[in-house]
Amino acid sequence: MRLFRIIACCLFAIISYGPSTELSAWNYHEKQSPAADDHAVRRGQTGIRELVSADVRQRYESWKAEVLSTEYGRTQWNLYAERKDFLLTIAVADERKYGAGTGDFEWDDNGNLVAARITLGKNIDKGYPDPVYYPVMNSLATYDGVFQIDGEILASTKIIHEIEHVNTTAGSNATLFQRQNKLMASYNNIFLRNGYNIKDPRLIELADELGAKPIEIWENREYESEAAAMRYLVERINREWFFCSVMGRMKRNIADYARSYQDKFDAIAGSSGSACHN
What we know:
This protein has one domain (about 1-270). By secondary structure, the protein is α/β, with parallel strands linked by helices. It has helices at about 1-15, 55-70, 70-80, 135-140, 150-170, 175-195, 200-210, 215-235, 245-255, 260-270; strands at about 30, 45-50, 85-95, 100-105, 115-120. It is about 50% helix and about 10% strand. Mean pLDDT is about 85; it is low at about 1-5 and about 10-40. Helix 5 (about 150-170) crosses helix 8 (about 215-235) and helix 8 packs parallel to helix 10 (about 260-270).
């Protein structure tokens, strides 16, 4: 039942635009070996291109300022802002609402990632994703009235999460990454049409081809981005009064939903030098 719950939760989040971060790992859009006149880098566009309408520009700048207020955030931003061989487009779009997504990847003929696009919802400063695959970002919300963090900190954390998806993709084998996405999309389509039967022979065959269950591939991508979000938050809020409450909630979320990744998260938490014991 737990496996079914996780799969159903995952797929529901993928196809919905509710008050949570839109999942990225099964929603990539790829461009492989584009023609010369359609290749961003060959057109001389590099660094970070920001596509933000006037009505949201001020809020976007405040989200960006939060990212740049930490050393970790500045490092992640400058990985792309200073590149001369890569274009990262960051756009704000109405349809994303509270969520964000990463896609429109472009690879050159040698398999190097040379472009990507992060799309942010106009309201990413609100809305908390489910703890199942977002134990870090979910920790910024609480249901007991003690604290709830929204605004610039929440939005900047979502941005860091998406930048890490670009980092992870850039470090992946292009052919394998694209093949995984195609097979995972096929798995998703069958699962949604077969009455959610995970024992369907077609799904078992696809999992064998992938070398792992699609859920395992997907969760690894999301938890890598959540680890980046945690690194950012450890630096950003370690002097805030709510720091220990957030860290305690992270710890509980990770223990409940990301136990196999607990060592990675524990190492990041340990780097804070905090005396929190909750």
